[in-house]
Write a structure and sequence with these properties.
With about 110 residues, the protein is an alpha+beta fold. The chain is built from three helices and six strands; from the N terminus they run H-E-E-E-E-H-E-E-H. The chain has a single domain, classed as YgaC/TfoX-N like chaperone (Yope Regulator, Chain: A, 2-Layer Sandwich), CATH 3.30.1460. Strand 5 and strand 6 form a beta hairpin. This is TfoX/Sxy family protein.
């Protein structure tokens, strides 16, 4: 089951407090970015956040699941998805801990 655009829009609206948040369609699902860093995926109308130490400490009792077959487990966020403040703080902590994205190489002409 592919993700509905309505669900992606809901997630983005929940994360307005984070700042520059966007979603890119990837293989029928969505990658979610904050300030240029990929921090999560939206797959099958579920939100998955990359695991970090800060995120794990913040969540407490973590539920992990792979967003798609063959993927590494991520934090599955279901119970508190409606809590804008909590979700935004989780994303802020996660993005802070993630490395900066690698610079893209220029294409040769």
């Amino acid at each position: 089951m592919a993700t509905d655009q309505t669900f992606v829009d809901f997630i983005l609206s929940q994360l307005k407090l984070v700042g520059d948040v966007s979603a890119k369609k990837m293989f029928g699902e969505y990658g979610v970015y904050a300030n240029g860093k990929l921090f999560g995926l939206v797959c099958d109308n579920k939100l998955f956040i990359k695991p970090t130490s800060a995120g794990r400490a913040f969540i407490g009792e973590v539920v992990e699941a792979p967003p798609y077959e063959g993927a590494k487990p991520s934090f599955l966020i279901e119970d508190r998805i409606e809590d804008r403040q909590w979700l935004s703080e989780l994303v802020r902590l996660t993005v802070e801990e993630l490395p900066e994205p690698k610079a893209k190489k220029e294409k040769k002409k």
